[in-house]
Amino acid sequence: MDIILKYFADFNPVQLEQFGKLEALYKDWNEKINVISRKDIDHLYERHVLHSLAIAAAFEFSPGMEVIDIGTGGGFPGIPLAIFFPEVRFHLADSIAKKLKVVEAVSAAIGLQNVSTEHTRAEAIKNRKFDMVVSRAVAPLKDLWNWGKPLLKTKKSETGLQPGLICLKGGDLAKEIQESGTRPRVMEVKELFPEPFFAEKYLLYVPR
What we know:
Blueprint: H1 2-7, H2 13-32, H3 38-41, H4 44-58, E1 66-70, H5 78-84, E2 89-94, H6 97-109, E3 115-119, E4 132-136, H7 141-148, E5 164-170, H8 174-180, E6 185-188, H9 189-192, E7 201-207
Parallel strand pairs: 1-2, 1-4, 2-3, 4-5
Antiparallel strand pairs: 5-7, 6-7
Helix pairs in contact: 4-5, 7-8
């Protein structure tokens, strides 16, 4: 938790309590349903929570926005973002039902009112539009864009943020970006959070 407070100092008491409860909840659930690797569970706040909050450090989501997290897994980046932006609605989708069971249990335990879930593949979602699509380490950028673009609204939010795909990725992305046919804005996570873990980790934004 200390590493979160190193970079974010203005949480209200509710948010502090919600973030503070995450470690015990995920450790408990991870014993039943493995949603976080064993080597990462002891580094939850840095490798999962803070990593997810790179999106919040780089982008301002305005109240009333609707955001979908495709391939949310155990709830990353969706749950940390939902705590950070309590007036933004987050829809967390995954094709594996047992992972969503963890998402729903954690959300309920910390009192999140702005999270909904859906057991589905991203490409199967129809007749819903969102202000932003977010994702973390789920699939190649080409696939993420093919799944995400049809889910995006066409109008900008009140903050002027163009609807688009925001994804967290790692490694050498040159070939992946080239094959995607997109021209994302690329940010280094270590520029936001200068910690060794974030070397070669990137934040990509593809506007619609």
